[in-house]
Amino acid sequence: MLELFSSWIGRRNTKFCTEEFPKVWTDFVDCFVDTVLAGGPTITSRPLEQVKPQPTFLPAVPRLVAIGDLHGDLGKARRAFRLGGLTDANDRWIGGTTTAVQVGDQLDRGNDEVRILYFLERLEREAEKAGGKLHILNGNHETMNVAGRFNYATLPGLADFYQWQLMQSWGSALKAKCGCNVGDSQQSVPPPRSSLDNTSAAAARRTALSPGGAVTTRFLADHPIALQIGSTVFVHGGVLPQHADLGLERINQETRAWMRGETSRMPSFLSGRQAIVWAREYSAEDRQRCECDVLEQALAKLPGAERMVVGHTIQDAGINSACNERVFRIDVGLSKGCGDGDPQVLEILNDTEVWQRQENGPPKYLGSVTALAAQEKKSVSWWQRRGLGQKLQQQQQQQQQA
Predict the structure, then answer these.
(1) Helix 155-176 × helix 21-38 angle, to 10°
(2) What CA–CA distance (Å, rounded) separates 244 from 271?
(3) 225, 277 in Cβ contact below 8 A?
(4) Is 259 a residue whose pLDDT tops 70?
(5) Where does 52-148+219-401 sit in CATH, by number?
(6) What is the value of pTM for the model shown?
(7) How far apart are CA 211 and CA 261, in angstroms?
(8) Which terminus has fewer CB within 10 Å in the chain: N or C?
């Protein structure tokens, strides 16, 4: 039907293809393609020039919900967002002015990767319209995929990107058939190989997820690696002292440039055991093995930071804290591809009280500003505290001006 209509336009009504129709037709085809790939309602992507990088430092909010690793399991992702009071039964944002953070690892291990990316993109826009915010971080599995390492991709996950490339190629051809010079709104996507096999599926995934690739540019590149909201630092692996010295803002900027294809090499802070997305210094299940001294050094280098929230390492005991409640570990292994645990989310109220929310039980109180932090505050003069606060405020103002 769509092809017949576009052919008819090209043969019978070329005068109509002036200034307005190309955009209307292009938007329609893009919306149709996105809806098929998302498996449901979606939103129109913003032109690249209209996309602004997310700020690295934000003020405290009354209610904040943090969600751990999703790993390609859309069903569990939906449950987690509902558990946090963020979405309704139809997966629409009902969180109002709540701020939510997903700490990375949307990709790999599961079969719903493309649909999860669309799901998060839509909620990000819906939250913004409601006065709330959804921040999506990049984890080690996002950076691995952009670097071309698909070690943990499932076969259905590979096929998903083949389908993505097929639909994008079909959409481009359909727009061209209208007889107009539409100027494709998406990046040029080559057609996939004629038959689906592991090689062609991996090639499609590489095309989509390479630096500057269409999926990377649309869904990943503008997401931060680390984010500080009030006194809480969010990161997938862990901010080590050397990362704090480098600067969270710089880390986010250099990652963004690499993912957009503006620089050729992956930044060094994204690879290796002590990379900011790979570090496990704060997430050992045996709390005695957590490097609390290192954590204290890192937090001390981040003005106003009192605690860190990390994912990356599955916590069989569920969401928990270590180092005198200075770090909260929220990867509960919810994906069927790694753990198949029940969803849990972290809730922070007024930048002080921390709660664990679970599906089959009442909320569990995990603490507030730690006694250790309170003691540290007493030992620091009013002038020193004022200086730290002013420094954080200056960083926030510089971001807004940029």
Answers:
(1) 160
(2) 16
(3) yes
(4) yes
(5) 3.60.21.10
(6) 0.85
(7) 5
(8) N
